[in-house]
């Protein structure tokens, strides 16, 4: 028997939609405070240099300049990971990339700040710089960070099962190098922070700090501000206004957030800093350029016997999330297919470029591109249909993978079936005209990391709920709405559990003074974790309402059904078709579906620890007197003091026991009984989902994984090398779709962003200088280049998710890149090993195929291709002159 | 630079401003008039988040001088709502998931308003082409097309009822 729901599962508009469509919603840069100053940051023009001297005397003399902030104003190091505290608000000794932060001008307005920033004189001692990770790994001196030998931030070497034996058993082994070039989030809202100190009433010095910031992680920001400013966390309030997209780019502390606070302290006035678009590109924290050497062994029947991956990531100048990224790359080789033996060597390397961090599909996307491409090659070799090939390697959940990941709900088989069906795969694959093709690929992602980055026993999400006397529900959650619909999800779950209308629910989110701790919006954790916490908080409040309502209604609390703003006695409402408010309500009974909250066997069903209070009164006509209520646990009722609501309530008590109550009546009854109506719920992942004990085993485990399968249809112009994606069928297992329109939006958005990385998006570097720091040059696709995406929701109902829900915002991205690559192979028979698949790369591959030369694009390049591409193509493989160039580079000349 | 007195016509109101002649329209709107609905997403007229209508034509306010707009009717996203209620396109964008983070939405509102004013029944390719002046990073645009079609339907229904 399935459950029916009144709020969840229905496509609804986001609760904050009107603020966005009318322009009334406020983002950080829309805020202003009286006396507010503007901060402008001076960035390094050098990729690697020691700072000898900073002279700001000329700048300080100018009218309108209030303060000049430098590194020594806040020298404490910080970083998002406890193991990676290698950043400073402003450089103290060295700059490590073009764009590194050197000083900050605080001025009365932006125009003055902009003019003055040039007047700060900085003397640099230039150092040799490293731009290519594999070169950087050979470094002996002039290291990016002195405590990181060979510029290796972190390396991991894992072996699960017996990889050697696995490869020995294989009938076919495929081995290749794949390169995925660097991409960035390019969220539409540039980072912005407004910081203001209260004046301490005792000392007159700057006291409490309030920071409004475009962040996905208000609590981490509060924590890092406390480290750098040497203030207790309780003296810092972080408020997250509307955030204009994050995708991971705002999931750690970005330099301007710290600089604004330091500047506000020094200037003793509120300071706002908003990045220009170019600065956003320098702040970066995107997906690193990744070199993947991948080897896969299979039996003749298509069963995978072993996988070996060596992954090198170009991490940029600072640690950022790097240690986690390189671990995800290895850990999430598991949990998609059944792979008995895995060998993984991961290197996170420092270079003199902006730091890379977390980006949608953190750590998994590039390796998934390599893996799914290689599976496609193996399928072609073994002449097994790619869909069938994947089916032969499915997991058999519930299970724990060889690298310690627990898999419970697993919608991958259904995802594959659905996309094969909808795309006409069987009839069309390999049968389309030359130049047009279909490709299939799969992916998965965590529904929140099972282990927090700061180790503690603290729950990952806590939610408070307060209900007012008029039935208004206020949910306090630290979860950060960044456009993904977190506030809406929270309101939906609260409303569903309490059986009230969505309009009653108000969500107060992400304000560290008001909301309990939630570690933030990253690793797709909010629906699963904050959703579960909301569900538990709502259950806690509901229990109190039910106890009071049961008294009034003369029945047991567990007999009550909360639905449509009514509290009904099980089975009874059919006798009273109209609610007490006079509005007719359709009976939820009489259908084969069991309304939510009535299911006896459901874990969300009603707990019975309140006992069967009052059941003796059923149908007897005996009044449920307040005196009987006082025998129960808590009572905030003061004898002789009758509030207005209580009076109304008292009149109603003189009537016969009710068979239904309105939500307000029940709330008033509960508040009269308890004194206040509040509840708390929290969520921490279960110990059995927290992964293996090996070093680095904490990254990768999740309470649940989402699954995705996609088919892409593309055409390739063999004259120009241009690839057009016509349609993508994307099936995604999100557990349960709490809000289908939001789930579809997330899936489409992921596929679309994946297509951007597959075809056009690439950060192009030349000697550490970004060649395309603008949205046009970065080539984020516009509507004219965007394919039709058909989202297909698959619901596997996870046993631990809130109402069975899992993640839906990241997992789909990783499948799109290999699906397109595999479709290109189907269309024109060339295998692309380097993303994005620009016309230059596709043409080079096509030419290589015509000449029948075994050219691997990632090692050399077709000598007939234009030299201009090599200069421009961004591949640092081709850096240097003469003998310095790569040995396979045709432009190389012997010294 | 010396400030000059300027009378702008914004959303059918006539605010008077004392601003520098080099003040950009976007800054005049956002900072001087506190109409923060129009957004700054880039600095080089590539994203369209700052789109406003000048005499009904979509223009990028980040690359226009405020003083050049004197005597012209400027409509910002704050002027899209009709009679104090959401315009059909605003409602539809909410209902159909056309807005996620919402930062690009004000720009799209203006672009779509112009599209529907000049072409009340656009074809799919016409919608795609019209929207290509604005960038969105969340939605992949698909749900925007649905929203626009829904808004057109709602408008037509509304008109049919009022007749």
Can you tag this structure with a few keywords?
heterodimer, A: 895 residues, alpha+beta, six-stranded mixed β-sheet, B: alpha+beta, four-stranded mixed β-sheet, two-stranded antiparallel sheet, 6 strands, globular
List the helices and strands and how they pair.
The complex is a heterodimer of chains A (895) and B (163).
Chain A: E1 3-4, H1 17-22, E2 37-43, E3 49-55, H2 57-61, E4 65-70, E5 94-95, E6 101-107, H3 110-116, E7 121-126, H4 133-136, E8 152-160, H5 163-169, E9 172-180, E10 192-199, E11 206-213, H6 218-229, E12 236-239, H7 255-267, E13 271-274, H8 277-283, E14 289-298, E15 304-314, H9 322-331, E16 342-349, H10 365-382, H11 386-391, E17 399-400, E18 406-407, H12 412-422, H13 425-428, E19 436-446, E20 461-467, E21 473-477, H14 486-498, E22 505-509, H15 526-553, E23 560-563, E24 566-569, E25 594-595, H16 626-629, H17 644-653, E26 660-662, H18 663-674, E27 678-683, E28 705-716, E29 723-733, H19 740-759, E30 765-766, E31 769-770, H20 775-778, E32 788-794, H21 811-828, E33 834-835, H22 839-850, H23 867-872
Parallel strand pairs in A: 1-25, 2-13, 9-33, 11-12, 15-16, 21-22, 29-32
Antiparallel strand pairs in A: 2-6, 3-5, 3-7, 4-6, 8-16, 9-14, 10-11, 10-13, 14-15, 17-18, 19-28, 20-21, 20-27, 23-24, 24-26, 28-29, 30-31
Chain B: E1 4-7, E2 9-10, E3 16-19, H1 25-32, E4 51-54, E5 57-60, E6 73-75, H2 88-95, H3 105-118, H4 124-131, H5 142-162
Parallel strand pairs in B: 2-6
Antiparallel strand pairs in B: 1-3, 4-5, 4-6
Helix pairs in contact in B: 2-5
Largest interface: A-B, 57 and 56 residues
Mean pLDDT of chain B: 93
Quantity of strands of chain A, as a count: 33
Overall 3D geometry of chain B? globular
Shape of chain A: globular
Helical/strand content category of chain B: alpha+beta
Helix count of chain B, per DSSP? 5
Unreliable segments of 5+ consecutive residues of chain A: 573-592, 599-642, 854-878
**Percent range for helical residues of chain A?**
25-40%
Low-confidence stretches of chain B: none
Largest beta-sheet details of chain A: 7 strands, mixed
The SSE string of chain B, one letter per element, is EEEHEEEHHHH
* Strand adjacency order, main sheet of chain B: 2-6-4-5
Rg from Cα of chain A: 30 Å
N- to C-terminal separation of chain A? 77 Å
Broad structural category of chain A: alpha+beta
Radius of gyration of chain B: 16 Å
Helix content of chain B: 25-40%
- Main sheet attributes: strand count, strand direction, barrel closure of chain B: 4 strands, mixed
Cα end-to-end separation of chain B? 55 Å
Total beta strands of chain B:
6
